[in-house]
Amino acid sequence: MELRYDRNHGRWFVNDVLRVIRRYGLIDSGDRVAVALSGGKDSALLLYVLRYLQRYSPLRFELVAIHIRAFVDDDPALLRAFCHDLRVEYLEETLDWDPARDAFPLAVSPTKDGASALAGSGAGHDPAGGEAHPGGPSPQPDRAICSLCSRLKRGAMAALCATRGITRLAYGHHATDAAETLLMNLLETRRLGCFAPRVEVAGRPVQIIRPLIALDERTVAAVHRRLGLPVTGFRCRYAPVNRRAAYKSLLTVMAGHLGLRDLPRRIVDALAQADPAALWTNLRKDRGLRPDHPHGTP
């Protein structure tokens, strides 16, 4: 794949992504950035976008890709080839955990502190499912599996970043993900909150960043298709129970009913311009009684 300059990229993604990077300080000069490459369209486009910016923008940073293999029977050859074509270093780890075999994960191979790497990271509760229950079965086991798997992958990547001198871990979350997360927090946990464009990982010199946060899923899919980027056929057997799908449908219905095709981007803009004086939490005297686990990342 030849990384050619294209002036159309400015209106497709460059302008929005550069604005987000500068507004929230996502990438500084000299940073070593890793893209969490899952094999889906979002992470594939993110890798392409950052590689494009590395070559054609004033930003100066190093770029690698990280793929975490879980219990899904996948062949990452396509991802390796994609990274080779972009001339991006490819790193891979394997989770030593299978929900059909292990009730609760005890190890991440080859590092064994993947789960603890996420403690206090600010990444929040995974809206893919319920909380993990280390002392016993979850009341919603399939949803808990999604949450646990997501947390273990993040932990494994955080540990790998620490050993490789990586300072930024980039996720492919976009505006539609943020809008869905806001709705999930609002309706399921009664909290007004969403994951942030940049998050510190406690105890680690790495920050989680989300450069695509200003692009909605419709734009991501269109650009991915236009560029002919790869997408793997990985399919998790627990995907049908993912709670997020219901909120994706709700968001689509809302956008159609209101005639707002850019509804996810409007919600992201609102999050960026929240008025602290209008938040009731500033008036509360019982903050210790607030719900503890907001939905955080997809």
Description:
Strands 3-2-1-4-6-5 form a six-stranded mixed sheet, sandwiched between helices. Helices cover 40% and strands 9% of the residues. It is an alpha/beta fold. Strand 5 and strand 6 form a beta hairpin. The protein contains eight helices and six strands; from the N terminus they run αβαβαβαβαββααα. The model is unreliable at 105-140 (pLDDT under 50). The chain has helices spanning 8-24, 41-56, 77-86, 141-164, 175-189, 217-227, 244-258, 263-272; strands spanning 32-36, 62-69, 89-94, 168-170, 198-200, 207-209. The longest helix is centred in the middle third of the chain and has 24 residues, at 141-164. The chain has one domain: HUPs (Rossmann fold).
Mean pLDDT: 82
By CATH, the superfamily comes out as HUPs
CATH topology: Rossmann fold
Number of strands: 6
CATH C-level class is Alpha Beta
β-strand percent reads: 5-15%
Strand order of the largest sheet: 3-2-1-4-6-5
The main pleated sheet reads as: 6 strands, mixed
| CATH architecture identity | 3-Layer(aba) Sandwich
Number of structural domains: 1
**Total of DSSP H or I helical runs spanning 4+ residues:** 8
> Any idea what the radius of gyration is?
19 Å
* Helix content, binned percent: 25-40%
Order of helices and strands: HEHEHEHEHEEHHH
* Low-confidence region ranges: 105-140
Global structural class: alpha/beta
Which overall shape is indicated by the principal axes computed on the Cα atoms?
globular
Distance between the termini: 29 Å
